[in-house]
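Appendix B, example 12.
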Amino acid sequence: MGEVMVLFRLMPHGVETDMDAVASGVKGAVPTGVRIRGMQIKDIAFGLKALLVAAAMPDTGGILDTVEEAFAKVAGVESVEVMEESLV
């Protein structure tokens, strides 16, 4: 079985959301077997920022949904979107 690399975009509740706190929350919310390979705070528009998270995970059924749900529960996160997904 292989591994999948996924790029997530986490959008905050608003421009006042502390993105460093969101990044810290994401690190604590990572499910077992998933490794964070990188994070970047990116300017979107008008002061709004997004957190881009690259994560490597096993290519098993349901793992992507599990990670997406875990990230969505982090304080300050409004939405989670899968931007890219590829086999490693």
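The longest helix spans residues 19-29. The two ends are 11 Å apart (CA to CA).
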